[in-house]
């Protein structure tokens, strides 16, 4: 029996404004994670290990940052003569042309192309979460259920539940209630932005909703589409038992890195049967020099440490000079921390320079320094502060 024909649509076009300075000059899927990875590496690696070779990536905001990373899709076995990786960009020339205004709107704009491809199942995923999942197992469960949509779910903290689409699930797995970012969540069971749709029924429904909402627009999947499918009893849940963390805010991005600094990280990024793949770098081995001290940290290729690094993640090319201290922080590629400087509970974007004797962050909220910004010698960026990237002439 032939395997069902599966198409994965990766939504990579959002601005990611909740990540603030980190997404001013790059798309959210291209934000670095755990030193050497990018956020989009997680859904693409899931596609690879799930045996799904037809993957479309919808881009819009800062698309060059995603395009440069994905290249021809080779790291995820998507550089194929037939099928493989395809980039979907905004277009003109039909009523569906123009800028995407929400995830459901984006799906509607690509619906004719999806109909032409004619998949048995359409998997729609975001690219701002860290997790491992066999999409084909979810597809199999979806096709066996007769549902119009299967929502992959996970448990979240009650204090955080209003950030997500929240569902109530019956004993038989049917989703009996769905609310998008509710003020008063009915449960702590959240959709984790992985959905398997029955393509024809879903696209027909989406067109009908488009006609109903008119100029108000389809917005996101959670605004009209998923509530309608739930109301008609056509939504099912598939529970993800393993680790999942949304990294769409500065705080959650920082906390996700903390998760991977433990002696027993929540997922093994180098697991032999399911490694997370990324575009290869060109950096030499990391070096700990002179009196450099490392404690409970991740060091990427090309890092040079002569100072004290504790509980931190150092991306490729980071330099920490003698007498400098980096603690509980995430340093993205090319950051340079000069002698005697201190960086605490902070996220520093690409090529930031922290001057000699300067202080960045401290106890309290996460401090964020934008790409290529310079903290002058002896300068200070307080805990919870923001130092944007310099203006260009």
From TrEMBL:
Its EC number is 2.7.7.27. GO terms for biological process: glycogen biosynthetic process. InterPro entries: ADP-Glc_PPase, ADP_Glu_pyroP_CS, GlmU/GlgC-like_hexapep, NTP_transferase_dom, Nucleotide-diphossugar_trans, Trimer_LpxA-like_sf. It is an enzyme of class 2 (transferase). PROSITE patterns: ADP_GLC_PYROPHOSPH_1. Keywords: ATP-binding, Carbohydrate metabolism, Glycogen biosynthesis, Glycogen metabolism, Nucleotide-binding, Nucleotidyltransferase, Transferase. Residues 372-393 are annotated as: Disordered. Residues 9-261 form the Nucleotidyl transferase domain. The keyword DNA repair does not apply. One of its GO terms (molecular function) is glucose-1-phosphate adenylyltransferase activity. Residues 291-364 form the Glucose-1-phosphate adenylyltransferase/Bifunctional protein GlmU-like C-terminal hexapeptide domain. Belongs to the bacterial/plant glucose-1-phosphate adenylyltransferase family. This is Glucose-1-phosphate adenylyltransferase. It comes from Modestobacter italicus (strain DSM 44449 / CECT 9708 / BC 501).
């Amino acid at each position: 029996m032939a395997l069902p024909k599966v198409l994965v649509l990766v939504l990579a076009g959002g601005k990611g404004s909740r990540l603030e300075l980190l997404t001013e000059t790059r798309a959210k899927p291209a934000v670095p994670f755990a030193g050497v990875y990018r956020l989009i590496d997680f859904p693409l690696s899931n596609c690879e290990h799930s045996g799904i070779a037809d993957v479309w990536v919808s881009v819009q905001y800062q698309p060059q940052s995603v395009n440069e990373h994905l290249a021809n899709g080779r790291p995820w076995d998507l550089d194929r003569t037939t099928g493989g990786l395809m980039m979907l960009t905004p277009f003109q020339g039909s009523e569906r042309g123009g800028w995407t205004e929400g995830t459901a709107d984006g799906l509607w704009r690509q619906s004719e192309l999806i109909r032409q491809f004619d998949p048995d199942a359409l998997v729609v995923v975001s690219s701002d979460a860290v997790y491992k999942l066999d999409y084909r197992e979810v597809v199999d469960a979806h096709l066996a259920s007769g549902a119009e949509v299967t929502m992959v779910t996970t448990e979240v903290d009650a204090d955080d539940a209003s950030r997500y689409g929240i569902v109530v699930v019956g004993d038989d797995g049917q989703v009996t209630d769905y609310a998008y970012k509710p003020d008063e969540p009915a449960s702590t069971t959240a959709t984790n932005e992985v959905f398997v749709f029955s393509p024809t029924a879903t696209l027909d429904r989406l067109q009908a909703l488009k006609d109903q909402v008119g100029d108000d627009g389809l917005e996101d999947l959670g605004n009209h589409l998923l509530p309608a499918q739930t109301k008609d009893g056509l939504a099912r849940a598939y529970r993800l038992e393993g680790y999942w963390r949304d990294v769409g805010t500065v705080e959650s991005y920082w906390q996700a890195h903390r998760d991977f600094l433990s002696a027993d990280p929540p997922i093994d990024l180098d697991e032999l049967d399911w490694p997370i793949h990324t575009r290869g770098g060109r950096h030499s081995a990391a070096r700990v020099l002179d009196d450099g001290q490392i404690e409970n940290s991740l060091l990427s290729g090309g890092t040079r440490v002569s100072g004290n690094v504790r509980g931190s993640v150092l991306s490729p090319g980071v330099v920490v000079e003698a007498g400098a201290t980096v603690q509980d922080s995430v340093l993205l590629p090319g950051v340079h921390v000069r002698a005697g400087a201190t960086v605490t509970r902070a996220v520093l974007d690409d090529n930031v320079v922290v001057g000699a004797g300067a202080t960045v962050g401290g106890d309290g909220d996460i401090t964020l320094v934008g790409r290529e910004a310079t903290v002058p010698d002896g300068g200070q960026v307080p805990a919870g502060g923001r130092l944007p990237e310099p203006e260009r002439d």
